[in-house]
Amino acid sequence: AIASGAAHTCGITHMGLLNCWGANEYGQLGNGNKTDRYDHTVIDSATSYRVVTTGWRHTCGITTSGKVKCWGSNEFGQLGDGTKVDQDKPVVIDSENLYQTVAAGSRHTCGITTSKRLKCWGRNTEGQLGDGTHLDKPIPITIDAQTDYQSVASGYFHVCGITTSKKLKCWGINDYGQLGDGTVVNKNSPIQIDAKFLYKTVAAGNFHTCGITTSGQIKCWGGNAYGQLGDQTIIEKKRPKKIDRGTTYQVVTAGYAQTCGITASRVLKCWGINEFGQLGDGTAMDKHTPIIVTNF
Asked: What is the pTM of this model?
């Protein structure tokens, strides 16, 4: 597992060792200080990890025993420890519960417990916590309590999750249509999206979202200024739109304004902004449709 924040990166080795490197002004590396690291360093060395996620300047992980730990910037309570004090070492969050997954947004975090409960914490100005309010929460709070969730993805100020019945739900900021409900109106609680289809995975970028249906069809929606939706245009879409028709996808990931996916035939494709070569195709030209990067 590997995850990159605004200017730091963390990864987990095959032995479960957590390593982090990069910017560290808020303690987001978790090594007990706030000095930037230009090479990887082992974090919380006595603990084995299986999941890591990075926000703008904070990090969270799940240990092999299911405990959530968070560290780094905490100005909006995004660490979930009940304070707004930055932490430069991993701190156990919501100690009474075990987690199966966690996803950090820019300044908020959401996770799913082993009992399938969705919980979110941190900044909530745009309703991205999904609790029906716009108040920041410094501790994990249960969202959509009557629904079991299997996965969650956090974007810049929006969140999408997939229920155990494969329904896609989204909430938070919607200025570019990134929630996919056909509007640009923010939602402060989960609403079902693309109700005629079932989903197996979803990825949230800064201002766009992509998901894969249970049949393997990839769909994208939201901001599209750089072609990150992959529909051959730069026009935003307020509802999920099928892209790369005829190709079955297994994995999708969304960045600032770029998207990559892996097909069922193990081909990596990417599209969107490419100013710094982030699509990996050997050019610096944006791509408005999925292009083959390499085979896996």
From this structure: 0.96
